[in-house]
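Board notes (copied after class):
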Amino acid sequence: MKKNQIILIILGVLILIGIASGFSYWLGQKSIEIKTEVTIPDFLTSKVAQKWNALASGKVMEISGRNLTLRKDNDILTIPISETAKIYLLTSKETQGKEGLKEAQFEDIKVGDDVNISIMFEKGELAGHVVNILPSE
């Protein structure tokens, strides 16, 4: 009878050890299942990208208020021009004998002009800061 009791005790201990190790394995698997969500912020509204510049070039298709609509290779983009924007007229050698920049006003921009606009995204807003009116060909 003692032999049967020892075997039952050993089996009981082994069962308890199995249950404990299975439970700890299950808890370990649960802790590994951490779901990390990676969110990519919108570039234009991100606080990391505070300012960035770009160059837009094309033919003026429409002037509406302080907005210029440009077209190049069948792409169209409307750019608001800042009130403090610098506007220059590039002169060709034929016009004044030498190439150069001449300060101009927003009113000097006409539909059909080729322009280069230095645009800046600042605080999620797009605005043209420098407009170069290119000489007509």
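Comment from the instructor: The beta strands are 51-64, 67-72, 75-91, 100-103, 114-122, 125-133. The helical segments are 2-32, 93-96.
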